[in-house]
Amino acid sequence: MIVDDEPELVEQIRQALAQQRYTVDTAFDGEEAMNRIYVDPYDLILLDIMLPKKDGFGILLELRNEKNSTPVLMLTAKGDIEDRIKGLDLGADDYLAKPFSMEELLARIRALLRRSNALISPVMKIADISLNTASREVFQDNQLIDLTPKEFSILEFLLYNMNRAVSRYTMAEHLWGDEFDPLTMSNSIDVHIKNLRKKISDPKGRIIRTVRGVGYMIKDETE
Q1: Does residue 62 lie in a domain region?
Q2: SS3 at position 88
Q3: Closest CA to 215 of 137, 179, 161
Q4: How confident is the model at residue 25 (pLDDT cuts 50, 70, 90)?
Q5: What is the predicted pLDDT for the residue at 26?
Q6: Whether residue 162 sits in one domain with residue 107
Q7: To the nearest 10°, the Cα dihedral for 193, 197, 198, 202?
């Protein structure tokens, strides 16, 4: 995801990344960026420091406080070494001062993605359940669980948002994307959750918890 309030620069970067077959989302202020980050997991965030509503440092601090380890490449017009140090201290993975060449940006992106893919396991776990995001398989006590694609996506999304309540609306938007109809699809989430709980032997919602008036959450009891 590209987070910057300069539309022309965002479009230039988006086109360059699209030509390299990256899937790209964009945000032009800090609040929009945080809303998008909590809806979909990203492999990398290009983050400007000077942003409306919430600056890049604030976004980075919130992400790392929430234990979100998505690689972040800071972009800024400032060449001040103090900004670079502050960004790295807050958890940025790299830093690139404007103006920069697109070739250098693409090289840094490739390096960060290689580093990230080498370090991050594709397996997420809760209780006796493990979900492999690469093979798209779910095991419970080492037994393969047969989930539908939407059931898998719900479990994956809840695990990605561990310890965070996820609304039915957000979950439905994540599952159906552009086809999302808020009048009908958010209600069908309850049906998918019921079926998913049955398949993972969680009829009472000890793993997938109901958050009244909001939606659902998986809580890590080891924290």
Answers
A1: yes
A2: helix
A3: 161
A4: very high
A5: 93
A6: no
A7: -160
- Let me know whether 139 and 85 are in one domain: no
Per-residue pLDDT reduced to its tens digit, 161-204: 788 888 888 888 777 765 667 666 667 899 999 999 999 999 88
Tell me the pLDDT band of 115, cut-offs 50, 70 and 90.
confident
pLDDT tens by residue, 77-103? 765 677 778 888 889 988 888 888 888
Verify that 113 and 176 share a domain, yes or no. no
Given 119, 141, 175, the domain boundary residue is 119
Q: Pull the structure tokens for residue 108.
A: 């840094």
Number of domains observed in the structure of the chain:
2
Look at residues 62, 94, 89, 91 and name the one whose alpha carbon lies nearest to residue 76. Answer: 94
Same domain, 29 and 128: no
Q: Assess whether 60 and 139 both reside in one domain.
A: no
Same domain, 107 and 134: no
Its sign, for the CA torsion 103, 24, 112, 84, is: positive
Give residue 78's pLDDT.
60
Q: Is residue 223 part of a domain?
A: no
Most distant CA pair in the chain, distance: 56
132 CA to centre of own chain:
16
On average, the pLDDT of the chain sits at 86
Task: Kindly give, in sequence order, each residue whose CB lies less than 8 Å from that of residue 135, ignoring residues fewer than 6 positions away.
Answer: 122
For residue 215, the tally of other CB atoms under 10 A from its CB is 21
Domain limits for position 150: 123-218
